[in-house]
Structures are given as C-alpha cells and as structure tokens.
Design goal:
Elements (H helix, E strand, L loop, with lengths): L3 H12 L11 E3 L9 E2 L2 E7 L14 E5 L7 E2 L2 E2 L4 E10 L6 E5 L5 E6 L2 E6 L16 E4 L6 E10 L11 E5 H35 L4 H18 L5 H5 L4 H26 L6 H20 L2 H4 L3 H24 L5 H22 L7 H67 L5 H32 L7 E4 H18 L3 E6 L6 E4 L1 H17 L5 E11 L3 E10 L21 H7 L5 H10 L6 E5 L3 E12 L10 H12 L3 E5 L3 H13 L3 E5 L2 H10 L4 E5 L7 H10 L6 E5 L4 H9 L4 E4 L4 H11 L3
C-alpha cells in the first residue's frame, strides 16, 4: 500500500512517451459534464518550455502541446528533449456550464507551482522562478474556490523544479461543485487524521508492551513500523501535516523517503522475528542491508540524488511483499497459530496494490474509503498476530509458572515426608519416655528433645502453610463451634508454657459471647496459637494476655475483637509493617536470640485477609506489643449437649479401644516401634504389614476394627492397597498415616476410600482421638 503512489510514478516513466496526444487544441469542454461527481481536468494543454508566462502574455506566441499531467523526464516535444529540471507554463481553456460554486482540487507537482484562473492568481505552492536561486519548492495539495466563473475560462499553470529527479506533474487537477468538494476535503482530512491517530496509539501501546513485557522483538519492530508509517499517512499523499505545520520542503522530502525505506526495513524485521523458523535469515539480512544502504544514501546526499532511489526500491518492495507472502504461507502450512491473520494482511496489501493500478488506468473508479479500510485491515490483521503471540507467551509463562510451582510443591512434599518420618519417631519416643516416669535429669533432657522436635515440626508446617497460601490451595471449612470452648482450650494449652518461663498468662473473655458461631476452627486456632506463641517467645518477664470481646451484633451476626497483649521487647515503629513480610523479623538480632522462621505473622495476615479481616498492631520498644483484629461471624444454632466430665470422656476412650484389633501397615521400623508402644499402652491388639500387598492379603483373611495405613511403601503403596481392600467390599475403617500436609494429598486419601488421616509426626493424644472417632461400635 505504501508503495502505490510510487508504482504509478514508476509506470509513468515507461508509458509517458505514449501519453503525448496529437490533438492540437487545449480546450476542455465540460458544459455537458455530470457534476454529481468530480471531473478530471486531464488533457492536452498549451506548453511553453523554460518560460513562466502570465495571463495576457500568450498572444504573440506559437504554442506547442503537451499532455497534463505527465513528467518532463526525457520527453521529446517538437525538436526539444525535456529535462527534469527547469520550468514551464501550461495553458488551457475550460468550458463550464452557466453556474457558480465550483471548486478546484490541485495536487502537488514537482516541485513548485502558481495557478491562475481568468487572470487571477488563485493558488501557489512555494515560489516558481526561472533560476534555482529564486525558486522555492513546496508540496501541499489545495482545494480552491474558483472566482468569476464564466462559460469560457482560462487556466494558466506555472511549474518549476530545480531539485527533484522528476519534473512536471504526476497527478492532475479535478473540478467539482463546492459543496461536494468541501465534503471530499473533510473526508480526506478525517481519514488521514483517524488513521494517523490509530497508528500512533497502536505504536505506543505495543512499544509499552515491549518495554514492560517480555521484550519480544517482533512487538518492538511492529511498534516502530506503526510509528514510522504514521508519518507516511499524514506527511505524504494528501500532505495533511503540511496544512497544519509549515515545515521546510527539504526536511519533509527527506523524511518522506527515509520513512519509506525505514518502514520497509522494520516491517521486514517484524516478519523475520514473528516467524523465524520460516524466514531464511540470510535472505532477510541481505534485504535489510539494502534498505540500510538506501537509508544511508538519503541521509548523506541531496534530493537530486536520493529521489532517484524510488524506482529501484520498487523492485525491493515487490520482493518484500512476495517473500512475506511466501513466509506466511509456510507458517500456515506449519500450523503457526497466528499465520492466518498474516495471510489476510498480505492479501489486503496485494488487493489495494492492484486496485490503485486499475484506478490509475481508469478501469475502476476511485473510492478513498477503499485505501483507508485497506490500511485499517492490514494493521488490524498484523496487530492480531501480535495479540495471539502475546496471549500465547502469557499462556506459556503461566504454564511454566504452574510447572515451577508444582515442582516446588512436590519438592516440599518430598522433603516434608523425609523429615517427618524420622521426626515422628523422635516425637513419639520422647512422648513415651516422658510417660515412663523418668528421673529428673532425664526428664529435662526429654523435655528439651520434645520441644526441639515440636519446633522443627512447627517450622515445617509454617513452610507448607505458606506454600499453600502462595499456591492458592487454602480452603476454609466452616463449622459450628463453641467460641468459649475454643478460647479456653487455647488458653490451657499455653498456660503451662507461659508458667515455664515465669510469665502470667491472662484470659479476659466476654461472657456475653459464650455462644456458638460458624467459623473454621482450625484456622482460628492457628491464628491465635501463632500470636500467643510469639507473645510468649518475645516476653522475658511480665505477662501475656488474651482478650476476646464483643464489638457489635445484629440478629444473626456478631463481631468479635481479639487482642493478644504482651510486655515483651516491643517492635520499633518503622518495623511494624515489615514484620508481616515473609522471612522477616524486626531485626537480625531478634532472629539470633529468639529463633523462628519469620513466616508466622505472614501466614496469619494472609489467612485473615482471605476472610476479609485485617490484623493490626501497636507496639513500643521495651514496653510490649498488642496484636488485634475484628471478625464478623454468623451465629450458629445452639446445641444442647449434656456436660461430660473429663474423667468420663477418658474412661469412654479407654473402654472403646480396649481389646480392639488394629492392622498397622508401615515399612519404617522406627515408626513401627513408636506406634506399637502407644497402641499397646491403650490395650489394643496389633498386627503388622510391611507393605500394601501384605495388608491386602491380611485384610481379606482376618477381621480388624481399624487399619492404620502408611501411604508411601515399597511393592504396593497405601493408595493402591486401600483401592484393593475396598474392591473386595471390605468396609473396615482405614486411617492414613501421611507425612504430607498438602491439601491435594489429603483429598487424594479420601478419594481412594480412606476414612480419615493423621499427619506425622502425630501427637499420641491426637492418634487416640482419631482411633476412637473411626472405630465403629
């Protein structure tokens, strides 16, 4: 498309010698013309070479005749051979109907003109002159209202050129009714301004996409192509820019040629980077090198030199178009996802190219909207290529990120399993030894061992929880809970720990909220446990307080405020926001003195945010810290449950487990030792299977009240063993012993038909409760 005008120029150089008419008359009769459309003033004009004649100076002269429009280059007129550089005067008589309100559209010429109508100067571009010193070139098409129209009118046109390699007129003049011509002018202005604005906007958008995206060079080159070509729309053809800004002809002409060569260069780079496998690099490098040579010549030499470059460059353009079409076809054959739009765009270029040729030869009528929509279709199709390419890159990035995240999750799962398995033995044995009435010195060592193992377990849990939050796999399980029971249980759990450090642990519970609420008990426990654990850890003397207050309520909703207050070391004001970031504590010395991963606060902040709650903090160094948040709950349905004493609950659990048959499926000897000790202490009868295959055999031939099933074992894992047991219509309760705390593992456990799961290293009391819960009867 951007070469269509140069194609016409190129053809004129070959057909120009055949355009000189033999009619020795310079009269254009339009008296019977249909002025519902514009009328061309092309025809045979009186021609005076190297003369600039004014109206009234023709009477004593003998004219020769020359077609208008046509170039001067090497044309033979009479006994004269015309040169591109020089000046000439054209004269014709225009016969018009007896009417007023005509407007003349005058195209630019090479390279300055003055136009007279009935003896009056009505339009000019630059300054015509007989010598280069007095002449000044300018290109700007004009719409001129004709004054004093009569039936017979004289039209005199002076043209001068001393710079360009072409001389004369490439485009003709048109006449029409003023209203129609005014509408045509506005449509030209609108088409060019809209298209220029669209190209600049699109170019800047894709440029931003490149700099703030993945730095795809195809996007960069298309952005540059849009920006460069926007000048060719507004600064070439109808030269709308020249109507808005007065710029030197020598500057605009150089830019005009540079943008032609440069637009071709960057479009070639765009095609090469869009389909690199289809585009042969060496061919594109040669073509790009030729374009760069043309650009260099335009920058270094005057217009009389670089204006010769258009004709040979037309051949380069044809090669570019043909090669681009070939590449898009190959891309389509190779099923590139964005190749269809490439073929559409190059097809549009070809059709508009053919259309302009047919219009020039008068075979088709010209419609400016055709070129406009051709441009729009071309750029839209090319932008769709990039849209598909960008969307595909985002899809690939998403898939890569998901693979990386999955790899991280799998790694954490594996590491968790490898650490939890021996840790289960450490925690279990330390529990058992502490129950075995150790000496005082032994008890101190066992407490330290148990505390260290629990800290390590807590660290693993924090890392896994943070990974689940980051991966978006946290789910909240709403249930009806008695808030007072939950808070009291947490308080009792930490009272011993606080007393061991010589601290007072206080509970302030608003009795007016001793009701049932609907919430995720596990997550509430996790948040408050973490806050209390931190408060006790960072407090050397004084007290820690847990406060639960009613903040507001409605018929079915209640808002509760939680506060955890301590008299610990405090947090500097400038670190209050930082402490909620992952792996961050108030200072490095805090980490060294008190330990911790720095994940706890980050986890609880995210857990609360997922429930629409914001945690806040007040602190003063040396005086203490208060963490607080408010959460709204739906009231639960009150349940009337007969009070059961701790002693009664304990007796019920002892009786339910006594003499029960349990199949322990575990391949790790240390875990077997630990589990056996606790199961025996509850008077249960134990059978052992070293892998899933043996477990299936034993389950088919023996009766068991419950099966404790490890998941990762040789020969047959726990999943397949459970599947086989259920396939045999055996409904025995199966509880998974898993070293993974990942949600997807827990879901998989239930999917394969297991009834419940417990995560290693398990608390003996938690294991006992799971057994009681799942054993029938």
């Amino acid at each position: 498309m951007f070469a269509s005008r140069f194609v016409i120029c190129y053809l004129l150089l070959f057909v120009g010698n055949f355009s000189i008419g033999q009619t020795q008359s310079a009269v254009i009769d339009l008296r019977n013309a249909d002025f519902n459309k514009t009328i061309s003033l092309d025809g045979t004009y009186e021609f005076y070479w190297n003369q600039l004649l004014l109206p009234g100076q023709f009477d004593a002269l003998s004219p020769i005749y020359f077609p208008f429009p046509s170039l001067w280059n090497d044309q033979v007129v009479g006994n004269q051979t015309l040169d591109a550089k020089g000046c000439a005067t054209y004269r014709a008589k225009i016969l018009l109907p007896d009417s007023s309100g005509f407007t003349l559209y005058v195209e630019d010429v090479y390279s300055a003109f003055a136009l007279y109508f009935n003896g009056k100067l009505i339009a000019k571009n630059g300054q015509v002159a007989m010598s280069p010193d007095a002449y000044r070139p300018k290109w700007r098409p004009q719409f001129v209202t004709l004054p004093h129209v009569s039936d017979t009118n004289e039209l005199v046109l002076q043209i001068a050129n001393y710079d360009h390699s072409k001389g004369g007129a490439l485009e003709g003049m048109e006449i029409g009714i003023s209203d129609e011509m005014g509408g045509e002018y506005l449509s030209i202005l609108a088409y060019d301004l809209v298209l220029t604005g669209s190209l600049i906007t699109g170019g800047l958008f894709f440029l931003g996409l490149y700099f703030f995206g993945r730095r795809d060079k195809a996007i960069l080159y298309f952005a540059l192509f849009c920006l460069i070509y926007s000048y060719r729309v507004i600064g070439f053809g109808y030269y709308v820019l020249h109507s808005l800004v007065d710029i030197s002809w020598y500057v605009t002409t150089r830019i005009e040629y540079l943008t032609l060569f440069l637009a071709t260069f960057v479009f070639g780079r765009f095609v090469h980077h869009t389909f690199p496998l289809e585009a042969k690099k060496i061919i594109w490098d040669i073509l790009d090198g030729i374009c760069l040579v043309f650009i260099g010549l335009t920058l270094l030499f005057p217009v009389s030199v670089y204006s010769h470059l258009v004709e040979p460059f037309f051949g380069i353009l044809l090669i570019y178009i043909a090669l681009t079409f070939f590449i898009y076809v190959r891309a389509k054959i190779n099923r590139r996802p964005d190749s269809t739009f490439g073929l559409i765009s190059i097809g549009v270029v070809f059709l508009v190219f053919v259309y302009n040729i047919f219009v020039y030869f008068g075979l088709w009528e010209e419609y400016k909207a055709v070129s406009f929509w051709g441009y729009v279709s071309f750029f839209f199709s090319q932008s769709l290529i990039l849209s598909f390419r960008f969307a595909n890159s985002l899809k690939q990035a998403k898939e890569e990120a998901e693979k990386a995240s999955q790899a991280k999750t799998d790694f954490l799962s594996t590491i968790s399993h490898e650490i939890r398995t021996p840790l289960n033995a450490v925690v279990g044995i330390s529990h058992f030894l502490l129950q075995d009435k150790p000496r005082k010195d032994q008890k101190e060592n066992l407490v330290s061992l148990k505390y260290s193992a629990e800290n390590l377990t807590s660290l693993i849990n924090d890392i896994l929880d943070y990974n689940k939050l980051e991966f978006g796999s946290i789910e909240f399980e709403e249930m009806t809970v008695n808030l007072k029971e939950v808070i009291t249980s947490i308080y009792r759990g930490y009272k011993v720990k606080a007393q061991a450090k010589g601290l007072d642990l206080n509970l302030e519970f608003d009795e007016s909220i001793a009701i049932e609420i609907i919430t995720d008990r596990t997550r509430l426990n996790q948040v408050l446990n973490n806050l209390l654990d931190n408060a006790i850890k960072f407090t050397k003397n004084g007290h820690v307080s847990l406060k639960v207050k009613r903040q507001g309520e409605s018929r079915d909703k209640i808002t509760i405020r939680y506060e955890v207050e301590d008299t610990g070391i405090g947090i500097p004001e400038d670190k209050l926001e930082q402490i909620f970031e992952r792996f961050t504590q108030a200072s490095s010395s805090t980490t060294r003195e008190f330990g911790g991963s720095g994940l706890g606060l980050s986890i609880i902040k995210r857990l609360l945010e997922l429930q629409g709650v914001t945690i806040q903090v007040r602190s003063k160094v040396g005086e203490g810290t208060v963490f607080f948040f408010e959460q709204e709950y739906t009231r639960g349905v009150a349940r009337k449950v007969a009070p059961v004493s701790f002693e009664d609950q304990e007796q019920e659990m002892v009786e339910k487990l006594h003499g029960r048959q349990v199949l322990l499926v575990e391949d790790n000897n240390m875990n077997v030792v630990v589990a056996r000790k606790f199961l025996k202490s509850w008077n249960m009868k134990i059978d052992l299977a070293e892998n899933g295959e043996i477990a299936v055999q034993k389950a088919s031939s023996n009766y068991y009240d419950i099966i404790l099933m490890d998941l990762q074992m040789p020969v047959m894992d726990g999943y397949e063993a459970t599947r086989a047991i259920r396939a045999a219509k055996n409904s025995v309760p199966i509880v998974a012993l898993t070293a993974s705390a990942l949600v997807r593992v827990q879901e998989k456990v239930l999917h394969y038909g297991m009834n419940d799961y417990i995560t290693k290293p398990f608390d003996p009391e938690e294991l006992r409760k799971k057994l009681v819960k799942n054993i029938r009867g």
